[in-house]
């Protein structure tokens, strides 16, 4: 009986060891095409070591745009549930700001950290009716123990100002002031601190690369001009003559079946193609610094004896288009190059049980998954509910990927429909003057992509008329033939009608059947 109190610290330590550390490395605007053994060899090697790596080859995001995608990753919810549909208003639009993956894991006993990019407009004053104060971006968001986040511009590769737990840190020139390097150093320091802290940790390393950015020329060379991504000084050389990929949908010639906002895009003449080549080369060159940081993190974990107790994930907030469908250096569009993102995972073998392993490149999972699933997976690994210490809980819209990581193939994975959203119908009439993009909802299955778009009049901000897109990814992987019709003008095919019904359900969905209590709303898939 007398041994009870004395064994309590040992029990606590054993419980902490049973719950793994988790690291998420998040890039910005990195397309699937940019993750290769040439661009990121250390990342691929580190996350496939010992055969414990998994690559999700059909991973998409809940919104192919920075802020709503990142909001979904911290809330575990689709935009129609967490309130963030666009970069504007950004953070002020997030519902239940105190209830995110950071506050949930903190409540579960984790030491939490976020380094680098955060939601846009975090440094802006709270709008009327909102009761929060970020101290101009200096204060850490709720639930974050260690904060190293941007203050002001979040797109500077050189000379950026970040807040280290409330203290502004302005990076200087040279290699030491290069933002990716500074974030890498901060990540290593966070991991080293685990040696003296018994708690498991959760860390997000949110790099700017390969997002378009800024630096004062000649620091970035030609990459420092025109808003292109800015690599470390001297790093462009390896990529200076790299050819621009030209898949079948590059500078697409027949756009008559596309929505108006694509039809009106001009062809890619010599000047645009030159700019695309520069953008491609500069983007690839920025990834070397991210890659080195991933390698350093994994090496540090191994030195500390933490690697076998740490799950590491690598992904991006959205993809990017380099001339596909005539889109020049942009995301937002509901096409595969914009929706799909890299997703690599290395999970300790003791947590996986019997699974599929192979040496070299990670094992591949081809079923559709999204960023909300990563949130659910991390909570599953930690054994934590999506609830704060005060009992504020969210209903997650994603599923844990642990069955897929363990080599299982559940029925839901084969039959699943995923939602993606930009903007909302209720926002459409409230944004006069903003005709920069359409608002849309879409779904993706293993084989099809279906989208319903609302065109916006740039003068009034009102929606004119809906437009539709439907692609068979098996027969048409480059999305060259739109098979949808406008139901007001023609009878849709049974396939389009079926997908439209599924979209109508998904745009209202909440939670997962069999895991969450039933409500008046349909479940997500």
Report on the structure:
The chain is 26% helix and 17% strand. With 525 residues, the protein is of the alpha/beta class. The strands form 4 sheets. A 10-stranded mixed beta sheet has the order 7-6-5-4-8-1-9-12-2-13, with helices on both faces. Strands 15-16-17-18 form a 4-stranded antiparallel beta sheet, with helices on one face. It is globular, with a radius of gyration of 23 Å.
Write the layout of secondary structure elements.
Elements: H1 3-18, E1 21-27, H2 41-46, E2 53-56, E3 59-60, H3 66-75, H4 79-82, H5 101-107, E4 111-116, E5 146-150, E6 161-164, E7 167-170, H6 179-192, E8 201-206, H7 260-263, H8 270-303, E9 310-316, E10 321-322, E11 328-330, H9 336-339, E12 343-346, E13 363-365, E14 369-370, H10 371-382, H11 402-405, H12 411-415, E15 418-422, H13 425-428, E16 439-444, E17 448-456, E18 463-472, H14 494-506
Helix pairs in contact: 3-10, 6-8
Distance between the termini: 49 Å
Residue ranges: pLDDT <50 for 5 or more in a row? Answer: 1-13, 431-436
Radius of gyration over all CA atoms, rounded: 23 Å
What is the CATH architecture annotation of the largest domain? 3-Layer(aba) Sandwich
CATH class of the largest domain: Alpha Beta
State the helicity in percent bands.
Answer: 25-40%
Domain module count? 2
What is the name of the CATH topology of the largest domain? Answer: Alkaline Phosphatase, subunit A
Number of strands: 18
Estimate the strand proportion.
15-25%
What's the CATH H-level superfamily name of the largest domain?
Alkaline Phosphatase, subunit A
């Amino acid at each position: 009986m007398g041994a009870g109190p004395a064994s309590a610290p040992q029990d606590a330590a054993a419980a902490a060891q049973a719950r793994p550390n988790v690291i998420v490395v998040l890039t910005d605007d990195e397309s699937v095409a940019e993750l290769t053994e040439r661009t990121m060899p250390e990342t691929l090697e580190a996350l496939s070591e010992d055969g414990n790596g998994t690559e999700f080859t059909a991973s998409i995001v809940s919104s192919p745009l920075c802020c709503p995608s990142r909001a979904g990753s911290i809330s575990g919810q689709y935009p129609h549930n967490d309130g963030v549909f666009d970069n504007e208003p950004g953070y002020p639009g997030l519902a239940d700001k105190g209830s995110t993956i950071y506050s949930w894991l903190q409540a579960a006993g984790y030491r939490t950290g976020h380094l680098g990019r955060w939601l846009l407009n975090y440094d802006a004053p709270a709008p009327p009716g909102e009761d929060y104060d970020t101290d101009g971006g200096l204060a850490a968001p709720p639930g974050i123990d260690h904060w190293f986040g941007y203050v002001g511009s979040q797109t500077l590769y050189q000379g950026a100002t970040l807040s280290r737990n409330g203290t502004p840190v302005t990076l200087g020139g040279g290699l030491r002031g290069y933002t990716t390097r500074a974030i890498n150093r901060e990540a290593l320091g966070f991991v080293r601190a685990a040696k003296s802290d018994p708690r498991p940790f959760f860390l997000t390393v949110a790099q700017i690369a390969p997002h378009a950015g800024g630096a004062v020329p000649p620091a970035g060379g030609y990459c420092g001009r025109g808003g292109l991504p800015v690599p470390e000084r001297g790093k462009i050389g390896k990529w200076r003559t790299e050819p621009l990929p030209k898949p079948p949908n590059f500078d697409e010639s027949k756009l008559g079946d596309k929505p108006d906002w694509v039809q009106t895009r001009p062809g890619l003449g010599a000047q645009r193609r030159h700019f695309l080549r520069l953008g491609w080369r500069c983007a690839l060159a920025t990834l070397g610094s991210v890659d080195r940081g991933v390698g350093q993190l994994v090496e540090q974990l191994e030195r500390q004896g933490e690697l076998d107790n740490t799950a590491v994930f690598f992904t991006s907030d959205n993809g990017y288009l380099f001339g596909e469908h005539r889109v020049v250096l942009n995301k937002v569009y509901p096409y595969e190059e914009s929706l799909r993102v890299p997703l690599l995972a290395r999970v300790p073998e003791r947590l996986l049980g019997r699974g599929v392993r192979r040496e070299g490149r990670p094992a591949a999972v081809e079923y559709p998954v999204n960023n909300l699933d990563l949130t659910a997976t991390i909570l599953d690994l930690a054994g934590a509910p999506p609830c704060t210490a005060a009992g504020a809980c969210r209903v997650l819209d994603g599923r844990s990927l642990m069955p897929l990581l363990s080599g299982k193939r559940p029925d839901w994975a084969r039959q699943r429909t995923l939602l993606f959203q930009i903007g909302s119908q209720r926002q459409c009439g409230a944004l006069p003057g903003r005709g920069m993009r359409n608002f849309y909802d879409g779904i993706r299955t293993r084989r099809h992509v279906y989208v319903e778009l609302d065109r916006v009049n740039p003068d009034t901000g009102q929606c004119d008329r809906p437009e539709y897109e439907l692609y068979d990814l098996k027969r048409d992987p480059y999305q060259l033939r739109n098979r949808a019709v406008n139901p007001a003008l023609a009878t849709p095919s049974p396939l389009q009608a079926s997908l439209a019904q599924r979209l109508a359900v998904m745009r209202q969905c909440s939670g997962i059947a069999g895991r969450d209590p039933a409500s008046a709303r349909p479940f997500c898939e």
